[in-house]
Amino acid sequence: MKKKTSSTQAVSSKLTKTRVVLRSKELAKHVPSTRPFNRGQLLAMLEQYRMVYVKPDAGSMGIGVMRVEKKSDGYRYQSGAQVFVFPAFQTMFHSLQKRIGGRRYLIQKGIHVLRHDGRPFDFRIMIQKNPFRQWECTGTAGRVAHPRKIVSNGSQGGTIFQAAALLNPITGKQKSSRLQSHMNHLARLTAAQFGHAYPAMNELGLDIAVDRNLKPWILEVNTRPDPCPFTKLDNPASIRRIVRYGRAYGRRYCLTCSKAKRAPGR
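The chain above was modelled as a monomer; its predicted structure follows.
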């Protein structure tokens, strides 16, 4: 009997998805160092990078993501809006381990990202198979973190902006346009990698951050992306296209987005 192919395909493990991206030499330059969570790896990465993110291997909406830092006087980590401070690595590690429990976690090199009003921001880029079965970037949404949180997800109280509204004041319009084109190029390369590894894949949501040197970094690839951020943009063209393309390959989206905030009018 022929196995039925689903209209969408989801891959839950962040480490597995990272390894797919790393198969491309060009993309590998834009992926922060990512390793399985354990004591030795955490100690080594804090020594090397001073700041890392500890996140669930399987998870979404920014739930469970923590920022861990080595400071001159000790260590600290932030979970949600809470910050915990420790004089020594071992006590900090025990606290983290207790919070993580038996779940599989990853450690990712921390990126010093661009900020808006002192709050970190990144971008969600949606790329989908269009009706001609070709990969197409269908939308980019800027996500600014809640003032007291480290993640930009709308479900964690993030605010959604047009990408240009965040980049233009920092880079100017010309560089902003080039940077957005570069991020779309990375999205298309990523889609090609995933399309080769998973032929049934129809859509991806890339979380891309830009550092202070204007280098884009692929923080995460979502294989069942939530289009919620695009419902908060002033221009409805992206969400209409996303829904139309999704319908063509059998995906239906929930567009009720109560936690994400819309950027204030300018």
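Residues 14-31+113-262 form a domain with the D-amino Acid Aminotransferase; Chain A, domain 1 fold (CATH 3.30.470.20).
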